[in-house]
Request: fold
Amino acid sequence: MEVILIDNQNDFDLNIDEIKTVCDCLFKKLEKEARSELNIVFIGREEIKELNKKYRGIESITDVLSFSYIDDKKIFGFVEDPDKFKDEFGFITVGEIFICPFVAEENIKTYEKDWSLTKEIIFLIIHGMLHIYGYDHKKHDDRLLMEKKQESLLSEIEEKFKI
Reply:
């Protein structure tokens, strides 16, 4: 099981080691396949805007985008048979999460509580991971379920890592 973090943005100096430690813990809670990986990429405003337009048809920046290869293995031309891929290559990528720290920082400015950029990024990672594992917030009941899981995971992480 591996979480791969890629920092392709220049707006903020992120504590990648701390984020990686938290992500490893979260991934182990959600993923059961030992030979799996998850990619988390930090990108700038223009890159997230371009991805949002290309894959969601929305021409604006956003804070987080997640792509689940569990649900949609063809989204980036992924293989049809994940088990065969795992046998041949030794791992399977469950998905990718793209986060724009600039937008994450803007989010914090609207909060009435004390919230750090690292905490916001962890929250967005939790949100993205839940999407990868089938959670959604389009319908009211689904949103409530997802929010409850997000808050539960965030509380565990806050307690364990003191973020």
In short: DSSP finds six helices and four strands in the chain. The mean pLDDT is 92. The beta strands are 2-8, 36-43, 64-68, 92-99. The first strand starts at residue 2 and ends at 8.
